[in-house]
């Protein structure tokens, strides 16, 4: 009885030489690793994101930017009556205002982590939220980037095995 390996199956499916398969797998593995690494670097650099929304009466709005120490944010809230607060990553309240109809705040992050901007429209008309905040990619994106790196390593290993076998 003959042993059937993954490499032999790949050869049968694509009917290619070992040399050609080796180069295709090596290039593919390297591409996965480079894309995964570039994505990890890119997602850890804070980017400015616009805060531009309207809030109906009696509606809440929660924004949770992931900020580095020293990242900045500016928020302008105008229109109906509202309550607004910002919590830092330790859940300490940075600023809190109640029953306002206009408010502007410039935030400079004292700590790195996930901040929470919570606005509650307590009035009877629309509320406008404007401004911008620096944020990084969510922690969930890290899983996708790791999958790219791991897939690249596996494909690279299969490519090396194709050359050896």
Summarize the structure.
37% of the residues lie in helices and 39% in strands. With 165 residues, the chain is α+β, with helices and mostly antiparallel strands.
Describe, in plain words, how this protein is organized in 3D.
- The chain is an alpha+beta fold and 165 residues long.
- It has two domains: 6-43 and 140-164, no CATH class; 47-136, Jelly Rolls.
- It has three helices and eight strands.
- The strands form two sheets. Strands 1, 2, 4, 5, 7 and 8 form a six-stranded antiparallel beta sheet that branches. Strands 3-6 form a two-stranded antiparallel sheet.
- A hairpin with a 5-residue loop joins strand 4 (72-87) and strand 5.
- Helix 2 runs antiparallel to helix 3 (139-164).
- The longest helix is centred in the N-terminal third of the chain and has 26 residues, at 18-43.
- The mean pLDDT is 87.
